[in-house]
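Anyone up for a design puzzle?
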């Protein structure tokens, strides 16, 4: 459990768990911090993928199903124990979708809310026509990373750090670029789905996410580019929104 899930603040009495999936190349610390910022009724589980942090000696995942199998194997008892919500940004949003679809289809479990950020739905034309970044040379890749922002300049300028960072990022992008799913012909969720995005990021087809649920669907645009959510003011907006909506969902289970 502790190998796959990073939980800074264990809250056995929490009413709902928020499970967060990392962006491409990302670790678990950013979201694990949220466990200290959200109120005591929410316990945050931040997913730690192979090949990073304490798992650097493990091979990267090559397929989305490998990620789902590992995370669900670890979390299934918790998913059955109490209500859960999901959050993911960019690659993490695609993983969130795959996770929600799989646990509904295979285990008939459904989150109380899905929060998605920073990317088009995996079955949208915008996503299917997106360039394959994982195949770029390191030089081209760094140029792209610089253009989207969010990576500290000291990392981009440090070749030793890049040697550690780039393989994880490219591996995750390869997973998502090879992940294929059909546009849902019938909504498989009934919970609310909320989308966030940066106003200065490349345009994403956020509306395409709507067909995954019969529940409420909202889109909120915040100032910033691809990693807008790292901005403290934007993070506060997101966490306040999550708190408000998870508190509302909690009332349904009292």
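Challenge accepted. My sequence:
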């Amino acid at each position: 459990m502790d190998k796959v899930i990073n939980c800074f603040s264990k809250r056995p009495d929490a009413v709902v768990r928020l499970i967060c999936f990392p962006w491409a190349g990302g670790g678990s610390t950013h979201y694990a911090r949220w466990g200290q910022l959200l109120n005591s009724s929410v316990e945050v589980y931040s997913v730690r993928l192979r090949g990073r942090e304490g798992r650097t000696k493990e091979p990267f995942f090559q397929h989305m199903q490998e990620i789902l199998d590992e995370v669900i194997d670890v979390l299934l008892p918790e998913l059955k124990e109490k209500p859960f919500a999901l959050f993911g940004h960019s690659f993490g949003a695609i993983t969130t979708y795959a996770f929600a679809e799989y646990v509904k289809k295979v285990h008939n479990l459904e989150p109380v809310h899905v929060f998605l950020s920073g990317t088009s739905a995996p079955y949208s034309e915008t996503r299917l026509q997106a360039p394959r970044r994982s195949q770029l040379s390191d030089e081209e890749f760094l140029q792209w990373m610089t253009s989207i922002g969010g990576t500290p300049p000291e990392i981009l300028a440090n070749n030793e750090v890049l040697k550690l960072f780039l393989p994880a990022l490219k591996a995750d992008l390869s997973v998502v670029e090879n992940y294929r799913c059909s546009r849902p012909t019938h909504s498989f969720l009934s919970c609310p789905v909320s989308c966030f995005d940066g106003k200065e990021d490349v345009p994403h087809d956020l509306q395409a996410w709507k067909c995954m649920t019969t529940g409420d669907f909202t889109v909120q645009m915040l100032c910033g580019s691809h990693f807008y959510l790292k901005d403290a003011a934007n993070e506060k907006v997101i966490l306040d929104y999550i708190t408000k909506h998870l508190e509302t969902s909690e009332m349904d289970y009292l």
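A detail worth pointing out: The chain has one domain: 5-251.
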